[in-house]
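The records we work with from here on pair a chain with its fold. A complete example follows; check for yourself that the lines match position by position.
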Amino acid sequence: MSPWAWSCRAVLFQRVPSQPGASQKWGRDAAVSIAGSIPRTPSLMEFTSGFYAYQHSFCPLQGALSDSSASQSLLELDGGVKILIDVGWDETFDVEKLKELGKLAPTLSLILLTHATVPHLAAYAHCCKHFPPFQRIPVYATRPVIDLGRTLTQDLYASTPLAATTISSSSLAEVSYASGYSQAASADNSFLLQPPTPEEITKYFSLIQPLKYSQPHQPLPSPFSPPLNGLTITAYNSGHTLGGTIWHIQHGLESIVYAVDWNQARENVFAGAAWLGGNHGGGGGTQVIEQLRKPTALVCSSRTPDAGLSRVKRDEQLMESVKLCIARGGTVLIPVDSSARVLELSYLLEHAWRKEVAKDNDVFKSAKLFLAGRTISSTMKNARSMLEWMDDNIVKEFEAFADESRRNNRRDEGNHQTGPGPFDFKYLRLLERKAQIEKILQQSEDAEPKAKVILASDLSLDWGFSKDILKSIAADARNLVILTEKPNFEPNHKPSIARTLWEWWKERRDGVATERTSSGDTFEQVYAGNRELEIANAERKALEGDELNVYQQWLATQRQLQATLQSGGTTTLEAPGDVLDDADTDTDTESEGSDTEQQGKALNIATTMAQASRKKVALKDEDLGVTILIKKENTYDFNVRGKKGRDRMFPVAMRRRRADEYGELIRPEDYLRAEEREDAENQESGQANANSQELEGLGKKRKWEDVGTAGRGRGGSGPNKRPHHNDRRRLSAGEADAAPFSENGPAGDDLSDLEDEEDETLNGPAKLVVTKETIPVRLRIAFVDFSGLHDKRSLTMLIPLIQPRKLVLVAGGKDETMALASDVKKLLTAHSTGSESAIEVLTPGVGTTVDASVDTNAWVLKLADPLVKGLKWQNVRGLGIVTVTGILLPGGEFQPVENGEAAKRQKLLEDGSTPSASETPSTAMVKTTGTNTSLTTNTASLPTLDLVPPNLASSLSVRSQAAQPLHVGELRLADLRRAMISSGHKAEFRGEGTLLIDDVVVVRKSTAQGGRIELESVGLPSDAMNGTAGGGNLLDAAMKMGGTFYAVKKKIYEGLAVVAGA
C-alpha cells in the first residue's frame, strides 16, 4: 500500500432534516465531519486546509482583574453570533464604562442576565433609553431576576441623581459654542440626562423573556443578528440570589458554562448551586450533573470570601453583634441591597426576633426592627409570590402556615389569629419614605433613646437611606455599623463610604473590642476613633437662564439627528432596524470600509451630531449624503464616484415587514367588525377618563374618613376588618406583641401617615450639584460576610469534577485571580497523568479577547459514490449515525483503479484520455501526473474516503469482530418513563435516578459511572417457558415479569444507536 493512504474506521453524524420534503444529498462532492477518529500524524497534517473547528471568543467588558464587582461579558460564537451576558454597573455610575456597549448594540444577537443586583443589571434601563437598538435585542432571565431587577432599578433612580448620568462636556461645548452660550456650558456644570421613568423601567423589563430552571430554550435572534444555527440556552440555579443563574450555552459542538457569582452552600432562603443536582440543583450527589460536565469552556468568578464561615456560625456572629449593641441602647445599621441579599438578612432577623420574643427576652422585646428602601414593599411582595424558587425549608414553612390558616378557617369563631408566613413580617417594619426615616432617627435623639436595628439600602452607603442614617448615628459611640460584603474599589474614583469604613476595619488603628459568641467563637468590633469622614451629597437642581437655553439647543440637536438618520417616515423605535439593512449588505468587501464604520446608525451618531452642532443643526447637502435624493425636493442627481458604504447606491425607504416562520405578522385590531371596533373605542375612552380622574386626585391631601374607603392598600378599616399598621392608636410594647400585624410590619405606629415633600425638579431639565460635608465618626465597625459567594474550597473541589477543556477566570481582583489561577493549575497538574495539566486556565483583563474554543479534531473529507450507496443511517434524537470503514486517499495525489484494469487504466491516463464512467474506482491506486489534473479539478482540495481494497478487507473484518459495539446517544429516565406509559405500562420514579416499571423492573442511571444504565428484574422467563402451553399463576407471573423486562430493554435500544466497534 502506498504510504499516502490510511485505512480508517469512523462514526459519521448528520442532522436529520426537520422540514418535510427536505433531503440530504450524499455523493462524491458531499462533505463529512469525522470527529476524533483519525490520529493527528505528521503525514496527515498535509491536509490542514480540510481541518475544521468551531471558534468562539470571550471578552470581559467590566469586572475582570479589578476590585469592581460590575459584570459585563461578551461571548462571540462561530458564525458571528454575539451574546452579551449581564449589563452591570457600579456605584460610580460612570457612563464612559458603557461606551463599548453603545458600539456593540447593533451587532448583538441576544442578552442574558444572571442576578438582580446592581453589578449585573443596573445599566439595563440606561441602555434601553439611550441606545435605541437595545430594545430590539431579545433578553432572557428567570422570573425573579426580572421582577426583583425592576424594583431594584426603580429604587436606584429614585434614590440618587447620579444614576441618570450627565451629558458629556464636549457635546455641550459644541452646542454652546455654536449658540453663543460658552459660559453656560462650562466644565463646572453637569447637565443631567433624563432618567427613565418608573413606567419606562416597567416597560423595559416587560420585554425580557422569562425562563425556568433546567429547561433548554432556543432563543430568537435580534433583527440584525446572523442565524443562531440551533443555539440552545439553559438556566440553572446559582444560589447567591433569588433566581440567580448559571448559564449553559450549547452551539454546535461547543458547550459553554457561564458561572459568575454562585454559592454551593445552602442558606436560610436560597438553595445551593445546581452543580450536584438536588432542589433547583442545590444539594445532593457526589458528581456534577451531566449537562454541566465537560464543557468546552467554563467562565467562573474568582471572587471568594476572605474567611468562609459556616451558615450557623455566620448567623450567630451577626446576632451576637446586634444583641450587644441593642443591649446598651444603641442603633445598628446594616447596609444591604434592595433586591437580592436583603431577603436573606430580613428573613434571619425577623425569625430571630420571633424566637427571642417567644423566650420573653427583654432586650429584643424593647428593640425595634426596620427595613428601609424606596421600593422595598414591592420587593417583598414579589418575594412572597416566588417561594417555589427558594430553599425547601421555606416551602415547608409556607405549607405549615397554609395548613394553619385552613384549620382556623374551619372553626366557627372568627377571631383566630393566623401566624405569620415566611415573609409576613411581625416585627420587621418596612419604610419607604424619607419622612419615616427622619421620624425614627429623631426618636434616637430623645432623653431615653430606644434601641433599634435598621437594614437600609444601599451597600455602598453612597446613596439611598443608608447614607442618611449613617450621618445621623455616626457621632454616638454606642452605635454600630455592620458591613456584610467587601465593598468595591475603583482606582480612578474616590472610594465609597462603605469602602472607607472597611479600610478602617482592616487597619484597626484606634482599638478593637473582642467579643465572644455563645458557642465560644470570637469576633471583633473596631472603634472608629473619632475620625473624620467626608461625604458627598448629590442633588438635582433645575436649569435656569442660559443653562436652560443650552440644554434646549442640545435637545433640539438630538431630535434633528434622530430625524435625519431615520429612513422614511418610520418611528424612532423602528428606525434602527431599517437603517441597519444598508449596513448588513456587502460588508465583506473592502470598499465598504472597516467593520466599525458599518455597525449601523448608532455608531455614526457622535460624528453626525458634531457636524450638526457646528452648523447650528442646519445640515448641508454633504451631510445628508445620498439621502438628499429623498430628503430634499427638486434634487434628482447625486455623484457616487469615490463614495463608500451606503452612499454608493440609491436610497430606498423600505419598511421592514414583521414576519416569522409562519408568515407575516398581522394586527388583530385591523380586522375588527364595526361593532367590535366601537366597543374597543368606548373602552379606551372610559379608561382615559378613569386615568384623568385618578391623576386629578394625585398630590392632593385627603381627609381621614376618605382613607377608609381606599381599601386595605392604604390601611382602610371598613366593617369586619382588622386594624392595619397605619392605625393612629399607639400601642404599648405588650399590646404590640398581641396585636394583629400586616405583611409589612407591626401595627400601632403613625409612620404610615408621613409623606415626603414633592420634588418639582424630578421631571424637568436639571443639573447635578455635588456638595461635601465632613462628619465625625465615633461608632463601632463590624464585618460579617453575608455576600453568599463560593469559597476557594468549593471551587477547587468542583473544577476537577466539572472537567472543563478551558477555564476562564473573571469577576475578581488581580491578586486573588492570579493566586486562584496558580492554585488551580497546581491542582489540575496533580490530578493529571502528565507533567502539565490538560486544562488551560485563562485570566483576561477588561477589553481583552481570548480564544476559548478547543481543537475538536474534525476533518472535512469526501465520500466516494460506491461507499455512499452502502451507508445505513440510524436516527437518534434528530441525528443520523452510521459507522464507516474505508480507505482515506489524499485529494489530488492518487486515484483508485480496479485491480484487473490497472495497466490499461495507467496507459489511458498517461495518454491523456478520459476513462469511461463504467470504469469506477475500486481497489488499486495510481499516482496522477501533470497531464491528467483535469480529471480531479473539482475534488483535488479535499481527501476522499473510498471502499477498502479486498486484500485489506479480511484483516479489518477480523479486527472489527474483536471490538465491542458502541451505543451512541443519551438515555433520559424521564423520556423512558413517557415511552413506557404510552405503551401501556406503569412507570414511576422511586428516588433520584431510579425508575420503577410495572413494580417488577428497576432502571437506574449512575452518574458516578458516566451515565451507566442498570436494569434489575424480579424474574425472567426461560426458553422452555416461552414454548410451554398453559401453565399456572406462577408461570403467568413469570411471563409477565419477563415481558416487562424485554419491553424496557427494547425501548432503551430504540433510543440508542448501536454501531460496530472501531
Q: What stands out?
A: The chain has 30 helices and 43 strands. The radius of gyration is 35 Å. Residues 889 and 944 are 5 Å apart (CA to CA). The longest helix spans residues 674-697.
